[in-house]
């Protein structure tokens, strides 16, 4: 999985983000429940993680569609 430096910085700065396993992020990248492409080309993908109580995480990809910029628990997402 390709990542930005920001991804790793955010994981170390936020305990919540550090709890998100890399396998869960990859699963959302590969099989999102919902996707939105922003005007700047970044791709937002959401997916539920059963191992995390069914909570949703949002993964933000760069415009290349494969580099993870950030990932976090998204308590506001409603399927």
Radius of gyration: 12 Å
Question: Would you tell me the structural class of the helices and strands?
Answer: alpha+beta
Task: Count the DSSP helices.
Answer: 3
Shape: globular
Main sheet overview:
5 strands, mixed
- What is the distance, rounded to the nearest whole angstrom, between the alpha carbons of the first and last residues? 26 Å
Helical residue percent band? 25-40%
How much of the sequence lies in strands comes to: 25-35%
Across the major sheet, the strand order is 1-5-4-3-2
Beta-strand segment tally: 5
Element string (H = helix, E = strand)? EHHHEEEE
Low-confidence stretches: none
The overall average pLDDT, rounded, is 94
Quick overview of this protein structure:
By secondary structure, this protein is an alpha+beta fold. The chain contains 3 helices and 5 strands. The chain has helices at residues 5-13, 15-18, 22-30; strands spanning 2-3, 34-37, 43-49, 55-61, 67-73.
Q: Would you write up a description of this structure?
A:
- It is globular, with a radius of gyration of 12 Å.
- 28% of the residues lie in helices and 34% in strands.
- The protein has helices at 5-13, 15-18, 22-30; strands spanning 2-3, 34-37, 43-49, 55-61, 67-73.
- It has a five-stranded mixed β-sheet.
- The chain is built from three helices and five strands; from the N terminus they run βαααββββ.
- The termini are far apart.
- By secondary structure, it is of the alpha+beta class.
- The model has no long low-confidence stretch (mean pLDDT 94).
- Strand 2 (34-37) and strand 3 (43-49) form a beta hairpin.
């Amino acid at each position: 999985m390709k990542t930005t430096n920001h991804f790793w910085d955010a994981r170390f700065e936020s305990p919540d983000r550090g709890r998100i396993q890399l396998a869960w992020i990859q699963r959302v990248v590969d099989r999102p429940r919902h996707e939105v492409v922003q005007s700047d080309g970044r791709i937002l993908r959401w997916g539920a993680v059963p191992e995390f109580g069914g909570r949703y995480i949002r993964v933000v990809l760069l415009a290349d569609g494969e580099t993870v910029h950030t990932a976090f628990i998204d308590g506001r997402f409603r399927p």
